[in-house]
Amino acid sequence: MGEVAGVAGGWDRSDRDSSDEQAQFSALLEDSAEDLYEHAPCGYLSTLLDGRIAKVNTTLLAWLGYERDDLLGRRHFSDLLTVGGRLYHETHFAPLLRMQGEVSGIALELKAADGSRLPVLVTSTVRTGRDGQPLLIRTTLFDARDRRAYEIELLRARKEAERERERLQRLAATLQTTLLPPTLADVPGLNVSAYYHIASADEVGGDFYDLFPLAEGAWGLFLGDVCGKGAAAAAVTSLARYTLRAAAVYNPDPAAVLANLNTVLNHEYNGADPRFCTVIFGLLTPDPDRGGFHITLASGGHPPALLMRADGTTGYLPTPGGQLIGVLADAHIATTAVRLTPGDTLLLHTDGLTEAHVDAGVDSEDRYGDDALLDFARTLAPTTASDTVDAIRDLLDTFGSGVDDDTAVLAIHVPRPPSEEELQ
Predict the structure, then answer these.
(1) Element (DSSP H or E) covering residue 346
(2) Residue range 157-178, pLDDT digits in tens
(3) What share of the chain is helix, strand, coil (3-state, %, to 5)?
(4) Which of 68, 122, 179, 222 is the most buried (most CB within 10 A)?
(5) DSSP letter at 92?
(6) Which helix (H) or strand (E) covers residue 53, if one does?
(7) What is the pLDDT of residue 6?
(8) What pLDDT, on the 0 to 100 scale, is given for residue 364?
(9) How far is Cα 379 from Cα 390, in angstroms, rounded to an integer?
(10) Whole-number Å distance between alpha carbons of 275 and 272
(11) Furthest C-alpha separation in the chain
């Protein structure tokens, strides 16, 4: 029985505690409607249709530092706004309220009694009578100081990010410039033109090209594409350019030049982060007897060169089997040789051109492709180096954002004798 009584006593205490909590909770809910209005966590304002203030709660008075008698019947809602706010209220807010009967979440600034400004979010509703005629305007105002501070900080951070991006773009552009030759060598009897299309101003690409003198009466040229983008790709690009030039001076044979580059890259980047590139290297020598030039091309996994003859015939110079430079210790290098006669044009390009999306506005894998480039070249032939590069520049522009990889092109042209040019 004692245990029963104890349990019963425990139930009594539990019931009393529960009753006390319920009583306290009920007391909290018994706040008067007037108290809820006056001390709400937002400002309340009621105005007549002409904007004169008819009612205002204590919260808003405290925000602005006014006494109730300072506003009721003496001030209009627009009087509480800053100059810019009044102008917006008269030209946009009030007309929209009259047309729609409600305007929600408009950012305005109130002017307090001490001259300070209070950013608020304003929602106004027109209250109508039973006959549907408007009677007064009820307005709710939320303190937006924290929101304004957040927006200002967000704007500051955005401007800082934009400045940082501009700085990085300038740095990338400067670095990209250093990876390309300032001018191409002037080869007697040959016209040369080149172009570099940057796909993104935010990252340094890995495409590169050059044309430079070697021994007496010989010139070297190359065009390549390093995998990846950014600083790592730029480092490989720089190494590849200077290795190619140095190797060509030591032994100008195109296959030997690429083999030398392959050894260097494979030695430097054979760890967890391998780096490689595709390259095509050419050795140019003039043909003093018949005119024009002999060129021997060596390719390490690079797209084939495109030859546009003086008679209009056009085709690729295949270099099948050439392997990526830097991947294998003993990469296979494919070579080909051809004679460039007066009127011929040779084009080297990176795969940013042929892999461009034909329709940048559609999420598809529809690429431009080698066949389309060949057809395009046939419409140009016979042509010159500068005309070829200008046409490809215009072609890349038509792809817009569909060009998602940097593109380098290098064209060389053997001019006809002046007498033949006059007949064209």
Answers:
(1) strand 345-349
(2) 788 777 777 766 665 565 555 5
(3) 40, 25, 35
(4) 222
(5) I
(6) strand 53-56
(7) 47
(8) 55
(9) 14
(10) 10
(11) 131
Give me the pLDDT at residue 272, please.
65
pTM over 0.70: no
Cα–Cα distance measured from residue 297 to residue 335, given in angstroms and rounded to the nearest whole number: 5
CB 120, CB 143: distance < 8 Å: yes
Backbone angles phi and psi of 41, in degrees to 5: -75, 10
Question: Token pair for residue 4?
Answer: 């029963």
- pLDDT value of residue 297: 97
pLDDT of residue 179: 60
Partners of 241 in the β-ladder: none
* Residue 13: both structure tokens together: 């205490």
In angstroms, rounded to a whole number, what is the distance separating the alpha carbons of residues 7 and 188? 113
Torsion angles phi and psi, residue 69, rounded to 5: -70, -20
The confidence score (pLDDT) of residue 152 equals 74
pLDDT of residue 419: 62
Regions in the chain scoring below 50 on pLDDT: 1-11, 361-362, 423
Q: Which two tokens stand for residue 134?
A: 């408007």
Using CA atoms, how far apart are residues 90 and 185, in angstroms rounded to an integer?
69
Cβ atoms of 205 and 235 closer than 8 Å:
no
Q: Using CA atoms, how far apart are residues 260 and 253, in angstroms rounded to an integer?
A: 11
Q: Strands, E, within 180-329: which ranges?
A: 191-197, 207-213, 219-226, 277-286, 293-300, 305-308, 314-317
Q: What pLDDT is attached to residue 321?
A: 84
What are the two backbone dihedrals, phi and then psi, of residue 381, each rounded to the nearest 5 degrees? -70, 145
Q: Are 238 and 204 in contact (CB under 8 A)?
A: no
**Both tokens of residue 281?**
């290297």
Q: How far apart are CA 252 and CA 236, in angstroms?
A: 21
CB neighbours of residue 133 within 10 Å: 8
Outline where DSSP puts E strands in 76-174.
102-111, 117-128, 134-143
Which residue in this structure is represented by tokens 């990252």? 203
Cα R_g (the chain), whole angstroms: 39
Tokens of 354: 């042929």
Report whether 122 contacts 112 (CB < 8 A). no
Element (H, E) at 277: strand 277-286
Question: 321 to each of 169, 268, 318, how far by Cα in Å?
Answer: 38, 24, 9
Handedness of CA 301, 302, 303, 306 (dihedral sign): negative
Quick one: pLDDT at residue 7? Answer: 46
How crowded is the C-beta side of 414, counted as CA atoms within 13 Å? 21
